[in-house]
Design a protein that fits this description.
Layout: H1 2-15, E1 22-27, E2 32-37, E3 40-44, E4 48-59, E5 62-74, E6 81-86, E7 89-101, E8 108-117, H2 119-128, E9 130-136, E10 139-145, H3 147-157
């Protein structure tokens, strides 16, 4: 029996994979392409979790440089993000979706958004990292994404990073 369990566990372990650092894709239907870094946990407290991921998207013949965000709150209300700031500069924020889900104690409320960056800001983040604050009706959420996450995106699309 022990041998059978050992073989089963080895086979199961062989099927497990870790998430890749960067994923990319293209839709022939919408003619949109994307490159997305694995989400980083940038903030967490008793009632909220913030994930962020650098991304580059080809949409309608344009290149969109961004940071995709997910703010999850444990409570009855959505975060309702209204502004994003980084070192005194207000950045362009677009809400993409709001979702709710079950939790053991209360309901989870999530807002998914996109912080738009310029190519220059994205390249600077690949050297210095990216620190930001999301301003919401239910609270403010600060976080930092390491430069390596932006560097992996630029490496994937073939743009050199200059220090």
């Amino acid at each position: 029996m022990f041998r059978l369990c050992s073989v089963f566990l080895m086979l199961l372990a062989g099927c497990m994979t870790t998430a890749p650092d960067v994923v990319s894709g293209y839709s022939v239907h919408s003619q949109r392409g994307f490159v997305l870094a694995r989400p980083e946990q940038v903030s967490r407290d008793a009632d909220s979790l913030v994930l962020a991921s650098p991304a580059v998207e080809q949409r309608d013949g344009r290149t969109i440089w961004s940071v995709q965000t997910s703010v999850v709150r444990n409570g009855p209300n959505y975060p309702i993000i209204s502004e994003v700031w980084s070192f005194g500069a207000e950045l362009d924020y677009h809400k993409r979706d709001r979702r709710r889900g079950p939790s053991v104690i209360r309901c989870l409320r999530e807002e998914i958004g996109e912080i738009r960056l310029t190519r220059t800001q994205f390249s600077e983040a690949a050297v210095d990292g990216f620190t930001f604050e999301l301003i919401g009706r239910r609270g403010n959420y600060s976080g930092t994404i390491p430069a390596s996450a932006f560097r992996r995106i630029l490496d994937r699309i073939g743009i050199p990073v200059t220090d």
